[in-house]
Amino acid sequence: MIPLLQRELLYALVGTGFTCLATMLGAATVYFFRKDLSPSVQRIFLGFAAGVMVAASVWSLLIPAMEMAEEMGQSVILPVGGGFLLGGVFLMLLDGLLPHLHIGSDAPEGLPARLRRSTLLVLAVTLHNIPEGMAVGLSFAIAAQEGGAMAGAVALALGMGLQNFPEGAAVSLPLRGHGVSRHRAFLYGAASGVVEPIFGLLTVLVAGHITPTMPWVLAFAAGAMIYVVVEELIPEAHLGEHSHTGTASVMAGFLVMMLLDVLLG
């Protein structure tokens, strides 16, 4: 019989390993395509990712956090509201400290650092993947405790995997366009997804067996994801102009993730 914490870590590794693999497969498109993504395709991918993350934050994180808090006899407002705010503040601080460069931008953000452009691009996508890894890791850890929650965890992993595939391509293809070799561009794109298993496992370790903290941690992951959506993905999906394509892709991503969670969860 596997001890509970080891089972939670194993489940979390499987779930985040799947989403990491999706990023790697997306990065592998650099071997099949020569051109960078067009602005219209970038809008679709970024908008879809934003919609998936918003829906996942609601159905897979905030609602379960509220239900768990109620089952424990806790006030819903403090752990869910407090955790949500802390998650947003955490990503805000990370966004201000971690050197990174967004695709299509010439000015790096975060603390000044003498890093290559390719490294800065990877760090930008890494910011997106941190809360995703936390969310998927937590969902699979909960599934390890309650077998009935596995369908919801699988739905979340599928949704994240769907939007991670184009994220991997969004790293490797632009790097190839800037003269980076195919192999190195693939490695950079794949590396951007490795952060998901790392943060997924770390989050499960931090939460551990302290069950009363689980609503806080779930809401924390949701707050971090919403920060990424509002600060990065939606503005980039519109690329400086009102875009029906970007808006439609956000709604499509939300719909797909919602249906996955409702049908499987």
Number of strands: 0
Distance separating the two termini? 27 Å
- Class by alpha and beta content: mainly alpha
The helix/strand order is HHHHHHHH
Shape: globular
Strand composition percent: under 5%
Instruction: Write down the overall mean pLDDT.
Output: 84
Please tally the helical runs, counting DSSP H or I stretches of 4 or more residues: 8
Poorly predicted runs of 5 or more residues: none
Describe it.
- The protein has 265 residues and is mainly α.
- The chain is built from eight helices and no strands.
- Helix 1 (4-27) packs antiparallel against helix 4 and helix 2 (39-71) packs antiparallel against helix 5 (150-177).
- The protein is globular.
- The mean pLDDT is 84.
Task: Summarize this structure briefly.
The protein is an all-alpha fold and 265 residues long. 78% of the residues lie in helices and 0% in strands.
Summary tags:
mainly alpha, 8 helices, 265 residues, single chain
Q: What's the structural blueprint in terms of helices and strands?
A:
Layout: H1 4-27, H2 39-71, H3 77-97, H4 117-145, H5 150-177, H6 182-207, H7 214-238, H8 244-264
Helix pairs in contact: 1-4, 1-5, 1-6, 2-3, 2-5, 2-7, 2-8, 3-7, 4-5, 4-6, 4-7, 5-6, 5-8
